[in-house]
UniProtKB/TrEMBL annotation:
Belongs to the 2-oxoacid dehydrogenase family. Coiled coil: none annotated. This is Dihydrolipoyllysine-residue succinyltransferase component of 2-oxoglutarate dehydrogenase complex. Residues 210-247 form the Peripheral subunit-binding (PSBD) domain. It comes from Algicella marina.
């Protein structure tokens, strides 16, 4: 007989509330399978099974308050194996049954998601339960705030169970699925989907999620509806601290998808609309851009540049450049070099505010905004100020291709000190780019368009481009912003200045 007791709950925490039991007496359990969830004042603690067998007795029911090391339940070890009953066996252990028939089971886990990223959403499963998989074959795709992560199969076999369905939020290191090695995928492909909804281990969805007992109590006392509280527990479960935040937070701090409520829509119009949930990437883009507007004293200054010199130089050397370096000579390397040159003269544009300090960067990590099917991402060319034209072009091409293919990692998009955004590739003639916080400056490039210009007293057609520098006026004065943009203009209109550091 194995005893399940309350684990250590953390420093100065002596008791917890039993929030949810995932198993019932008589259910078969496996080693490390989650039995119940405990709720403390600060965190939610999952209690795993210390042995395989049958859950004999639940001592502490849901809602009970228990101390550290208190008895929660007892397990009869080996009982499930001695008297198997197919009709009584929970669906969660069917993967183990397949293991007995075909081979051992292998867990598919959530991979490392990147620095400071702790959770992701299961975007798409490429395989169904019962299908055969090969080692390294892509099983599913996870979506984080920044990137999409593909999860390969760790071994060959049959996908015997999907634990986290599409749309489920999972934590780094969590379990996604189970693969049975050596099993055949022909017999189980049709039977499993029908049994999936009845799994006792399946996470409750939507309105079936049970909130923490203490949370329900406080909501009842305060007269708060669950719709007014954002749950932080598993599957959106509302915890005690979530209710306390909703009670204490001012109404202006509550996140809202739109600043103005949607107006009434006729039934005819509604039938012709399509409602699609925003991806985590799009939600993050919206949140960060709005934060930039709310936090920074953002201002934009404009200028225009005659692109004749750059275009002539590019046309003259593009074939030799491609032959020697294996990459085309584009405009981005000129703009990157020009910005690096200007940032040395106006270092506050390459700085950021940290509390009451200004952090000046003695390097240039250049963010290059890239449009992808999923949204705008900003991969970073590190130490761009030390790179040659060829190295910059190669790095931009590499990051751009990975961005379009959804292969960028979190490290590829962290640490930028300044950003360049090229709206001209989409035909934009002029715009005001929004800062990429915590950076203090972003340069907007635009469409090259022939316009009449006065040169030497004569009106001639010149390829002109509008430039826009958005900057944080808290740290960058108007003089510094104008000086920066003038230096970029001078370097592009006479690229020889870059070679002579003028």
């Amino acid at each position: 007989m194995a005893e399940i007791r309350v684990p250590t709950l953390g420093e100065s925490v002596t008791e917890a509330t039993v929030a949810t039991w995932f198993k019932k007496p008589g259910d078969a359990v496996a080693v490390d399978e989650m039995l119940c969830e405990l709720e403390t004042d600060k965190v939610t603690v999952e209690v795993p099974s210390s042995a395989a067998g049958t859950l004999e007795e639940i001592v502490a029911a849901e809602g009970d308050t228990v101390g550290v090391d208190a008895l929660l339940a007892t397990i009869s070890e080996g009982a499930a194996a001695s008297s198997p009953k197919k009709e009584d066996k929970p669906a969660a252990t069917k993967a183990e049954a397949k293991a007995d028939e075909g081979g051992k089971t292998v867990d598919v886990m959530v991979p490392a998601l990147g620095e400071s990223v702790t959770e992701a959403t299961v975007s798409t499963w490429f395989k169904k339960v019962g299908e055969s998989v090969s080692a390294d074959e892509m099983l599913c795709e996870l979506e984080t705030d920044k990137v999409s992560v593909e999860v390969p199969a760790p071994t060959s076999g049959v996908l015997s169970e999907i634990i986290a369905d599409d749309g489920t939020t999972v934590e780094a290191g969590g379990k996604l699925a189970i693969i049975t090695e050596g099993a055949s995928g022909s017999a189980s492909a049709t039977e499993k989907p029908a049994e999936k909804p009845a799994e006792s281990n399946a996470a409750p969805k939507g309105k079936d999620v049970e909130n923490a007992p203490s949370a329900n109590k406080i909501m009842a006392e305060k007269g708060i509806s669950p719709d007014q509280v954002q749950g932080s527990g598993r599957d959106g479960r509302i915890m005690k601290e979530d209710v306390m935040k909703a009670v204490s937070a001012p109404s202006t701090s509550a996140p809202a998808p739109a600043s103005v409520p949607r107006g009434p829509v006729s039934a005819d119009d509604a039938s012709r609309e399509e409602r699609v949930k925003m991806t985590r990437l799009r939600q993050t883009i919206a949140r960060r851009l709005k934060e930039a507007q709310n936090t920074a004293a953002m201002l934009t200054t404009y200028n225009e540049v005659d692109m004749t010199a750059v275009m002539d130089l590019r046309n003259e050397y593009k074939d030799l450049f491609l032959k020697k370096h294996g990459v085309k000579l584009g405009f981005m390397s000129f703009f990157t070099k020009a910005c690096c040159h200007a940032l040395k003269e106006v270092p506050e544009v390459n700085a950021e505010i940290d509390g009451t300090d200004v952090v000046y960067k003695n390097y240039v990590h250049m963010g290059i905004a890239v449009g992808t099917p999923s949204g705008l991402v900003v991969p970073v060319v590190r130490d761009a100020d030390t790179m040659s034209f060829a190295t910059i072009e190669k790095k931009i091409n590499e990051l751009g291709a990975r961005g379009r293919d959804g292969k960028l990692s979190m490290s590829d998009m962290q640490g930028g000190s300044f950003t360049i955004s090229n709206g001209g590739v989409y035909g934009s003639l002029m715009s005001s780019p929004i800062l990429n916080p915590p950076q203090s400056g972003i340069l907007g490039m635009h469409k090259i368009q022939e316009r009449p210009m006065v040169v030497g007293g004569q009106i001639v057609a010149r390829p002109m481009m509008y430039l826009a520098l958005s900057y944080d006026h808290r740290i960058v004065d108007g003089k510094g912003a104008v000086t920066f943009l003038v230096r970029v203009k001078e370097a592009l209109e006479d690229p020889r200045r870059l070679l002579m550091d003028l």
